[in-house]
């Protein structure tokens, strides 16, 4: 249940999603550390992105659905 076809996530959206994550977390100093694409187990089988941003001031992450739309909360 952890495996899925990569076509379920729109990989071409990663650059834009990474930019959104940096803007939201630390636009001046933030750097994308990594991007994960995985299922949202055990809550659901939905595919989710998680973009990790590192910064000397503030680090964080942005979650998005399989269409690259940021999730709130």
Describe, in short, the structure shown:
It is built from one helix and three strands; from the N terminus they run αβββ.
Description:
The chain is an alpha+beta fold and 73 residues long. 18% of the residues lie in helices and 32% in strands. It is built from 1 helix and 3 strands, in the order αβββ. It has one helix at residues 14-26; strands at residues 31-39, 47-54, 60-65. A 3-stranded antiparallel β-sheet has the order 1-2-3, with helices on one face. Strand 1 (31-39) and strand 2 (47-54) form a beta hairpin. It is elongated. The mean pLDDT is 93.
Secondary-structure blueprint:
Layout lengths: L13 H13 L4 E9 L7 E8 L5 E6 L8
Antiparallel strand pairs: 1-2, 2-3
Which percent bin holds the helix content?
10-25%
* Continuous helix count: 1
Strand content: 25-35%
- List unreliable stretches of 5+ residues: none
Rounded average pLDDT: 93
Query: How many whole angstroms does the radius of gyration measure?
Result: 12 Å
Walk across the major sheet and give the strand order: 1-2-3
Q: What structural category arises from helix and sheet content?
A: alpha+beta
The dominant shape is elongated
Q: Total strand count, please?
A: 3
| Sheet with most strands | 3 strands, antiparallel
User: Could you spell the SSE succession in H and E letters?
Assistant: HEEE
Distance between the termini: 25 Å
């Amino acid at each position: 249940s952890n495996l899925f076809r990569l076509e379920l996530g729109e990989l071409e959206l990663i650059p834009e999603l990474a930019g959104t994550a940096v803007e939201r977390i630390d636009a001046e100093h933030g750097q994308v550390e990594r991007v994960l694409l995985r299922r949202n187990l055990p809550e659901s089988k939905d595919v989710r992105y998680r973009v990790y941003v590192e910064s000397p001031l503030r680090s964080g992450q942005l979650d998005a659905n399989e269409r690259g739309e940021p999730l709130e909360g």
